[in-house]
């Protein structure tokens, strides 16, 4: 049965009954019930079915419709009943009876608590004019004989997914605790709604013994390494799940929203790796935060055509699994919820079944063209090839320095990217260095515009200062730091590298991580890709320019997302934005407005004294 029409409705606080007991509602929509009934009746692609018990007695069904009426599931369908006897090589009997059948069924939980069955309550036959007609009684007998036995087999069997949920619960609570589950997951009760049948899934975990809080020591090297690999496991899990969900929909809007969640999660993981706090459980926090954002999108997916996720209950069980973990967390820290490798794999198997990998690590680092195409990240990332004419233009354009700094003969053979290889900015070469960088940024922005038409014409002139200001705020236009003899790529504590400070953990599969370090022009062009992605696919699409401030908002939103991830897009206008982030955004805007006029930074904002 196709699971995507299921809607698992879990609120911020699930029903907590006795100690450790939780109920989670699951809604089976009427369209899903109709699918289940269609399978039992063996309806073909045209929506018709022939039921028979001999050559001359049969029922033809069509136009089957399902709806909820008070506490019952109602079926309405067109029926043609033929009854007769096979005599002398042919069927002999009266003319076929044609009319409609109305059947009411009452849903109920089976004794096992693992399935929902349906009990037929009443059945009515009527001709198109509302009369019963001569054949109504034999038609009723035929219906009772051929149709009702099939209808009684309609059942929503949740035994397998509920068993998987039990395993997930046991994997996710403190290791070593015996008999974690006091009551295994079951359907406790159901209620009918206009949109379907709501089944309440209930389970109970053992309340832990009270204990004195113990101050946890700082992580040692081995424990820190385990955290790192577990966070990698979470990254791999989210990437696999979100990619699978994106592949299941044709909606590019949903794909972009899924990508935003993934990028924000990767940003958060990168930041968490820089913090050594024994009191925090970053993996649990990251999972729950990501789930809160992912959950509504999965509900939206359920109502759409989703190729690739059409096996029984997979998406419904996966959603329930994540909601179970959230419910366990809501019980309180004393219950000891832990997001473990086995727990992540168990949750993934609810969606992917045998397709779930045995491990989500090591993380794939190479560029994945399929991943790029899936999320619309297929702009060119090849840096612009520099011609001799462009090189000559570079040499002649140095109006702030003399030709002695960059001889024209040499310029004919070298591009800004080549000239910047191995160069670290110092006082004695700063002007020449900044001129080279300025030309490189200008050149790459122009090249991107020549190869892409995503940006509205009114905004194309804004790309150059956006790129310049971003690079200045992120790196002070530096790809390398250190001494000239031993230059090292500029690397932040969170792992962002190079002039555009691109984080390989966040942008793996999209960009070549080695080239981001080794090639300044590749680094810059990747940064331009990311900026324009946030500008077009998020800032413009979400209508930031429609608010007071107009197109300036787009620039501010684009940089905020670039600096912190898609979830930071609106931070420039939010009252609750942290002062440290406001300071970053204000500094960027000062650089942007200056470079719109001068195309040149205030050097002292980055380089003073001997820097």
Feature tags:
611 residues, 20 helices, disordered N terminus, 5-stranded antiparallel sheet, 6-stranded antiparallel sheet, alpha+beta, 18% strand, single chain
Structure description:
It is a single chain. Helices cover 44% and strands 18% of the residues. With 611 residues, it is an alpha+beta fold. Strands 4-5-6-9-10-11 form a six-stranded antiparallel beta sheet. Strands 1, 2, 3, 12 and 13 form a five-stranded antiparallel beta sheet that branches. The protein has a two-stranded antiparallel ribbon with strand order 7-8. The radius of gyration is 32 Å and the shape is elongated.
Helix-and-strand structural type = alpha+beta
- Helix fraction? 40-55%
Mean pLDDT: 83
- N-end to C-end Cα span: 66 Å
Residue ranges: pLDDT <50 for 5 or more in a row?
Answer: 1-13, 384-411
Number of helices: 20
Characterize the biggest β-sheet.
6 strands, antiparallel
Shape: elongated
Strand content: 15-25%
* Spatial strand arrangement across the major sheet: 4-5-6-9-10-11
Radius of gyration: 32 Å
The tally of strands reads 17
